[in-house]
């Protein structure tokens, strides 16, 4: 149940984040989640969008450098310890988390954790067995 994430490479200066988000908005592309990682010279904007194909076409048409990758999305309660439970299960099973970010869902009292792991199928099976709820793209978009 991998979810597609788009990583966009951008210069580490004032403006690119505003330009990219405005570009997506102009094309009616809704971002569900985002994360920005930076180094001295460049940044990586990681986004989860409702229409990855459309977003990639817009980025390509505007000569932006991007890459699509698979990540795991997990629904959880918006409460202390929820994230610790998810990543704790992965750690116990020796499944490393490369990076993670989360967002709150619309008025439900729930949150969603996005995880980059090297074995999505194993992580998903483990979390399901533990009673947790990995999401597919459709489920993520309806939160």
TrEMBL record:
Residue stretches spanning the membrane: none
Start and end residues of each ACT domain: 5-76
InterPro entries: ACT-like_dom_sf (IPR045865), ACT_dom (IPR002912), ACT_dom_pair (IPR045739)
Pfam families in the record: ACT_8
Protein name: ACT domain-containing protein
Source organism, top-level taxon: Bacteria
Protein species of origin: Candidatus Merdibacter merdavium
């Amino acid at each position: 149940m991998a979810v597609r994430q788009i990583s966009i490479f951008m210069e580490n200066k004032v403006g690119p984040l505003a330009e990219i988000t405005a570009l997506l908005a102009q094309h009616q592309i809704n971002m569900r989640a985002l994360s920005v990682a930076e180094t001295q010279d460049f940044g990586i904007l990681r986004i989860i969008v409702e229409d990855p194909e459309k977003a990639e076409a817009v980025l390509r048409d505007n000569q932006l450098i991007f890459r699509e990758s698979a990540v795991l999305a997990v629904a959880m309660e918006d409460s202390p310890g929820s994230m610790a439970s998810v990543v704790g299960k992965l750690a116990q099973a020796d499944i490393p988390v490369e990076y993670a970010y989360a967002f709150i869902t619309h008025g439900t009292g729930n949150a969603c954790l996005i995880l980059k792991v090297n074995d999505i199928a194993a992580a998903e099976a483990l979390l399901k067995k533990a009673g947790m709820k990995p999401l597919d793209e459709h489920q993520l978009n309806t939160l």
